[in-house]
Amino acid sequence: MDELQSTDRRRNMSLLDILAFAWxxxxxxxxAWAVQYGPLKSRRGLVAAVNDRRVQWMETALRRDIxxxxxxxxxxxxxxNAFFASTSVLVLGGLTAMLGAADNVKDRLEQLPFISDxxxxxxxFKILFLMVLMIIAFFAFAWAFRLTHYVGTMFGALPLQTEAxxxxxxxxxxxxxxxxxxxxxxxxxxxxxxxFAIAGLAWFVSPILFALAxxxxxxxxxxxxxxxxxxxxxxx
Length: 236
Known about the structure:
The chain is an all-alpha fold. It contains 8 helices and no strands. The N and C termini lie far apart (66 Å).
């Protein structure tokens, strides 16, 4: 009887795991689709407000005779992207080690009263799930880092101060700002993936808690993009 109840409980938990994973896909991919192609594409948010300031930045840099400060800002952006990319690799290495010791990790964590009982295959799938998210985040950060190098090339090719009022110079400044915006967009995508990976940690506790964490992360990302004080300040 006890074995039968345990089997039924695992089947029910497997169904909850499937539903929780489907809810994650809806939150993660659905939000990305809504921002790039859906109803949020035409809505002005924090990214659009920052992009306007990037254009203003490059147009101002055109009129500067000495652009050391701008070069330092670009170096700071590049260093930030490199930091996140290297951090993703470190986390990926830790998850790989955790996958190799899945049995030991499962036995130790399931001793806690609030950790749900699940087959070892389910534990390995959850670890692989986090690994996939960190790989996606790494590629996003790595591409953002590479784009900052292209931005440096474009910035170095900015026309001289004496040519700042020409149409060609202003067009070059806008293209440079757009490239900075592309780098920022991929950085945002990588950060959003890390947010959902943190929510994925709740899956080891309970699939219901994982679903709630995904909903919370989606709400936080939406609020910071379209309802935050930072957006109000930048868009004012």
